[in-house]
Amino acid sequence: MSDINLEAVLLEALDDERKAEATYAAVIEKFGEVRPFTNIIDAERRHSAAIERQMTRLNFVIPANHWEGKGAAPATLAEACSMAVDAEIENIALYDRLLPAIPDDVVRQVLQNLQDASRDNHLPAFRRCLEREESGDRSGSGRGGHGRGRGRGCRS
């Protein structure tokens, strides 16, 4: 079908998910238990685990996480939300590039699910975060883990 290196595809996807997790962890470390970062970091962990399950299924070696503890948070929460919007857009583009050539149906479906979560859940949540921070509406900023109370936590 294609000369795609499936192991390289999974490693690239895993690296991207781990980078997001490390970045969102740094944001939480700096700004506290703020949503949507607290919800989405858990989703990023699930994304990494899903990729790792496929790597195990295919007998690929799972590398150590070189991103752990290396995330960086910007100066403000608004900048963090903006950075997260950009990161999710880049993640969606990564999967747009990788998905068409994947010959393994299971891997393709797993990565499609991860892309769907980024596009349908993470990106809108971070866009709302950015809008909230830019508008100065701190009442729903999620400090203390309360979030906006919309009942729409990330389910990816």
Tags for this model:
4 helices, 156 residues, single chain, mainly alpha, disordered C terminus, Ferritin
Q: Name the overall outline.
A: globular
Whole-number mean pLDDT: 86
**Largest beta-sheet details:** none
CATH homologous superfamily annotation: Ferritin, core subunit, four-helix bundle
Between the first and last Cα atoms, what is the distance in angstroms? 30 Å
Determine the structural class based on helices, strands and strand pairing: mainly alpha
Count of discrete alpha- or pi-helical segments spanning 4 or more residues: 4
Task: Give the total of domains.
Answer: 1
Question: Do you know the CATH architecture?
Answer: Up-down Bundle
Beta-strand portion reads under 5%
The arrangement of helices and strands along the chain is HHHH
Can you summarize this structure?
The chain has 156 residues and is an all-alpha fold. It is built from four helices and no strands.
Report on the architecture of this protein:
This protein has a single domain (6-145), classed as Ferritin (Up-down Bundle). The protein is 64% helix and 0% strand. It has four helices and no strands.
How is the topology of this model organized?
Blueprint: H1 6-31, H2 37-57, H3 77-98, H4 105-135
Helix pairs in contact: 1-2, 1-3, 2-4, 3-4
